[in-house]
Amino acid sequence: MRRETFFDSNIPLYLLSDDAAKAQRAESLLIEGGVISVQVLNELARVMAGKYGMPWNEVRQTLQTLRRTCEVLPLTLETHELGLWLAERQGFAFFDALIVASALLAGCTVLYSEDFQHGIKVENRLTIRNPFIAG
């Protein structure tokens, strides 16, 4: 498992996408493993059950598969406080700031996400990368 890599919820959601290239890229990254937070699991459950209308047993099975591949970190008061600080200091939307906070607290060096500017560095130790952009 790659402890240095954190995944935002939009990356595993591409496994359900009609975009074959993005689904394949997401799958290749997730197979290598990494870190997610309970927030990612919650966001995935909401989208899979809501937007995609998946039955709860399929949602549960999908999340179990992801939990076997990735280390799952809890949301803590420390995550909340760092998220608030990042939202204020960096101008991130609050729930995006919580994802960044989780990645920082996990000691990750890369956060894969489409929700941020590709290539930005946070706190000189976490680089945000859009895995669907070349380079």
Number-wise, the strands total 6
Task: Give the CATH topology.
Answer: Rossmann fold
Number of helices: 6
Q: According to CATH, what is the class?
A: Alpha Beta
Helical fraction equals 40-55%
Which word captures the global form? globular
* Count of all domains: 1
Q: What is the CATH architecture annotation?
A: 3-Layer(aba) Sandwich
Q: Please give the order of strands in the largest beta sheet.
A: 1-4-6-5
Instruction: Tell me the structural class.
Output: alpha/beta
Measure the end-to-end span: 23 Å
Report strand %: 5-15%
Give the helices and strands, then pairings.
Elements lengths: L4 E3 L2 H4 L6 H12 L2 E4 H12 L6 H14 E4 L3 H14 L3 H12 L4 E3 L8 E2 L3 E4 L6
Parallel strand pairs: 1-4, 2-3, 4-6
Antiparallel strand pairs: 5-6
Helix pairs in contact: 3-4, 5-6
Give a description of the structure:
It is built from six helices and six strands. It has one domain (5-129): Rossmann fold. It is an alpha/beta fold and 135 residues long. It has helices spanning 10-13, 20-31, 38-49, 56-69, 77-90, 94-105, and strands spanning 5-7, 34-37, 70-73, 110-112, 121-122, 126-129. The longest helix is centred in the middle third of the chain and has 14 residues, at 56-69. 50% of the residues lie in helices and 15% in strands. The strands form two sheets. It has a four-stranded mixed β-sheet with strand order 1-4-6-5. Strands 2-3 form a two-stranded parallel sheet. Helix 3 (38-49) runs antiparallel to helix 4 (56-69). The mean pLDDT is 94. The protein is globular. It starts with a strand and ends in a 6-residue tail after the last strand.
